[in-house]
Amino acid sequence: SQQGEEDPQALSIQEGENATMNCSYKTSINNLQWYRQNSGRGLVHLILIRSNEREKHSGRLRVTLDTSKKSSSLLITASRAADTASYFCASILNSGYSTLTFGKGTMLLVSP
Amino acid sequence: GAGVSQSPSNKVTEKGKDVELRCDPISGHTALYWYRQSLGQGLEFLIYFQGNSAPDKSGLPSDRFSAERTGGSVSTLTIQRTQQEDSAVYLCASSQDSGGTDTQYFGPGTRLTVL
Description:
The complex is a heterodimer of chains A (about 110) and B (about 120). Chain A has no helices and eleven strands. Chain A has strands spanning about 5, 10-15, 20-25, 30-35, 45-50, 55-60, 60-65, 70-75, 85-95, 100, 105-110. In chain A, strands 2, 4, 5, 9, 10 and 11 form a six-stranded mixed sheet that branches. In chain A, strands 1-3-8-7-6 form a five-stranded antiparallel sheet, with no helix packed on it. In chain A, a hairpin with a 5-residue loop joins strand 4 and strand 5. With about 120 residues, chain B is an all-beta fold. Chain B has a single domain (about 5-95), classed as Immunoglobulin-like. Chain B has no helices and ten strands. In chain B, the strands form two sheets. In chain B, strands 2, 4, 5, 8, 9 and 10 form a six-stranded mixed sheet that branches. Chain B has a four-stranded antiparallel sheet with strand order 1-3-7-6, with no helix packed on it. In chain B, a hairpin with a 5-residue loop joins strand 4 (about 30-35) and strand 5. At the A-B interface, strand 4, strand 5, strand 9 and strand 10 of A face strand 4, strand 5, strand 8 and strand 9 of B.
């Protein structure tokens, strides 16, 4: 079963606008991570937020985590055409397993 | 230092043939993971190696899939008697340890096409 579900499935914005992607999950997590994937190949780790954290920043990225709602959001500010990619949330479950469980991703298109 | 590398980058094979996919993790990383990504889908966990422990094979979809990790470094994922539904991008990742808090670094993947 899918642990993470990203929302929206696709997002199209103009350069300079902010992009917000959401992720919901089902079971208790140890941490939640966001990855970016270009052209359906390798994933690049963006940011990790632990279950006891509520917000984290990295450059133009801002991630929030609400464990009571089992949800996370990724905000990309002042988007650029180069941000065009698929974004996935992934979680490490509290069940003791170290494998990441991924959602299906949000496809972001940033137009110049 | 070098990242995770995978070979081949693309593999086209005929249904029924066996294929081997290779992963070279980042030097010193004790944990190694294989995932599969079908078109337009998220990643599906296949198998996980941690040090000298027995691998977690819980994600392997059938007994046609197997993986080895020799010397705690290079890993090979083998798919026997390939089927068309095996067509996907196979991604390998490594991390420093299995504490569940370490970032996983992904290779570029092998795109497998079964005709």
